[in-house]
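Slide 14.
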Amino acid sequence: MSEIKTFHRIDKFEVPENELQQFLSTVVASHRQIDGLEGCVRNEVMMKCQGEGRFNVVTHVVWEDQTAYDVAVEEMTLFHQRRGGRPEIPSSIKADRANYIPINFRKQT
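Slide 15: predicted structure.
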């Protein structure tokens, strides 16, 4: 049996308090669309409640594999085009966006 290699998209944002509600509204609209896409295993939008660090909003989407992610990117591009284009992130909001794959750290039995 082949191992399923999940593919993770994690976006972290530093959002000024006075822009937080509008930003979250935009992010939530996109993530509601992501929920319906094939291959989406997990989809979360999170706000920091404790701890250090500059990022106060984090999104984390887990895809079945990179192929599912690649298809979803195309579908979300079309989604945003139908709505007039992908929303621009104001320069006052700092973002750190990246894709990740898991590291298998568990002992094999």
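Speaker note: The first helix runs from residue 20 to 35.
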